[in-house]
Write a structure and sequence with these properties.
With 395 residues, the protein is mainly alpha-helical. The chain has a domain of 95 residues. Helices cover 37% and strands 8% of the residues. It is built from 12 helices and 7 strands. The strands form 3 sheets. Strands 2-1-3 form a 3-stranded antiparallel beta sheet. The chain has a two-stranded antiparallel ribbon with strand order 4-5. The longest helix is centred in the last third of the chain and has 28 residues. The two termini are 56 Å apart.
Amino acid sequence: MTSEEQTVSLVDVLEEDEELEEEASAVLAGSDSDHCSYPQGYVKRQALYACNTCTPKGGQAAGVCLACSYKCHEGHDLFELYTKRNFRCDCGNKKFTDLQCKLCPEKEEENTGNKYSHNFFGVYCTCSRPYPDPDDQVEDEMIQCVICEDWLHGRHLGCVVPDCVELQEMICESCMNQHVFLWTYAAHLAGKSPSSLRKRLDKTHFYVTKTENSFQSTDQEVATAIKKDEEVSLHTNCESRCLVFIHKEAEPDCRLKELEAIAQKRVQSGAVFWPSGWRSKLCSCSSCQTSLRESGLSFLLDESDTVLAYENKGKNNEQRQQGNDPLMSALDNLNRVQQLEIIHEYNDMKTELKDFLHRFAAEGKVVTPEDIRQFFEQQQSRKRGRVNTGQFYCT
């Protein structure tokens, strides 16, 4: 291997490191990396892996938690599944003929509540291809469906991928067609939906008859309210020179039924992207709750079920862990003089390393392993020189 093959761009290293750190924070920090999640039952959402070494294609699909991927499947060929909901760790059950879980050996033979897909064999999307795909030269992001949790290429969704897609949830066309009531919601909540959705759900209908063009002040307020579609209570004014009849309809028991009655249509094809907060607008009447439960979609009423909520939990966990940094704890056990000496040494090294790397960046050069080795050798030499200068001997 030549020296050129061993070198990398400093910018590439920094960007890749930052990207990997953010991804790890979002996915992994929300799960326990030390203890098998099996005792927790069907975890609401967690990072999962499939082991191609232990359960290859042709066998039974199985998933393992984050901790088991580290402790029980180290060095194995793993498929990263990102996160899945309501899943119980399979590691060591009957699907693993030659492996016993090191963290939680006492497990049932099978987790009947788990749901599996082709993702557990390392393929994704309607095209059933691996990711990354060595044979695919098209740069395309993959987006996870809220319901089936499969990952699909943007170009295979059958719709235009919106801007700020990371702030929206997506339901694939297959899941939309499987749960057809979602198309009714999509006509009002997704895409170019009316801004007056709330008014449509809570609107009071008014019928007005006017006998003269002039209004008393109270009647004028009512007329203004009616024109703005604002809700007002029954109002009559016998002394006024006009007569206003106001009829207030009872609020519907089911939002879904009212939306169906409006009969607003949209093309029922392609995936659907849902804006932030759309789950809170779904009907939660007893009938709809029963239907969602029977369809296995009760989680749609839970705004904390989202991947974004999971990622925020992981980031909060990481911040708490950083607050308990072992290095800072060690510093607390040192006296004031020792603390100042260590902080001084750290700041010196950070400044010198920054200046060292800045020279490479300014000249457009790459940093080689030999450059880094020489830098730290110089640091050690300077440190030894400072120590030797400060030594005194008695004769």
